[in-house]
Predict the structure.
Amino acid sequence: MNVRRSAAVLAAVAVLGAAAPAAADSSPSPTPQALPSALYGDTDPQYDGVWRQSLALLAQHAAGVEPPKAAVGWLTGQQCADGSFAPFRADPSAACDAKTMVDTNQTAAAVQALAALGGHDAVTDKAVGWLKSVQNKDGGWGYTAGSPSDTNSTSVVVGALAAAGEKPGEVRKGGRSPYDALLGLELPCTGKGAGAFAYQPEKDGSLTANADATAAGVLGALGRGLLVEPGKGDGAAAGSCVKAATPEQAAANGAAHLAGALAAKGYLLAATPGAEDQPDVGNTADAVVALAAQGETAQAEKSYAWLEKNAADWAAQSGPAAYAQLILAAHATGADPRDFGGTDLVKQLQAAGPAAPGKTTKAEDEAEDEKDSDSPFGVWWFVGVCLVAGIGIGFLISNRTKRQQP
């Protein structure tokens, strides 16, 4: 009996033990839909399927590994006729319509991955065309077409434009470029958060520093994507904040802010109101890439060393996109992702993909559990035994901890 089935049985025991007796529902449960075998990861792809697939392919390319053709084919097959991408389309043969939740981030990530792999110009050209068609009048992009511009979305689209051979500064709407939008989202050099980027303006128009947006904003202002080649920065150490009249200066200001935030402990803190301070591993990895792109190698390498000691468990819990983030951080700093504090990140990422022998998804495991339940010795028989012998089971359940993927 696998771990997931055991957990399901224990959860059922807890519910049955606490509830009043009720008539059992004899109707058959629907069989869970198995996830595509070409998809990286085994969690629900409804909100991040294309994003994590794109990062996985991009990271493998960075590590010198040719991704499985099935994985690449799955990604290209997710594109809508207008060039956009949704996070996940269960039936790619069905035409996209107004209910298909396409967005700029999935689309831009797919462009970056497919452009890096090469040979997919038809797909990337259509995607870039769609991205241009939904550019806002301030020059930036929001997460969905027509939504207010934000630093993260604008930056990932800039990376897609650059990867596809476009000059982002020449992609304009209403006379304004993506760089104009990013300059408008950077905090001034006075006061709290000097030089950082905000995600979006607050309701009153003020800007609040955001570490995740700052890491993205540095890359966007430099006209760079998620894949940063080592040694490609300008070599300038992050200095004091100077009023930004150019995207290059905005990037330098953002990098200086990140370097200052990382200097004390080597990592960024998770911004969770009311919670104890916790390291934000994902944002730290993104900050390492941003600092490397700017040429601030000293702090990038120090924070990467912190990741080597502390990020392996986080990646194992978080899945393919997390492994990809760490591989991209390793690549940006010139480190070996196959020797990440004793962990082979590339091998772990490949194990989450279609090339992994005997790989099963959570949905497939659940389907197998449902099949087992048809046996006279299936799940509910086991539940009954547990209830009869359930002395102390409440204590066991109350002390179990469940860690979810972020």
Notes: Confidence is low (pLDDT under 50) at residues 1-32, 357-406. The radius of gyration is 23 Å.
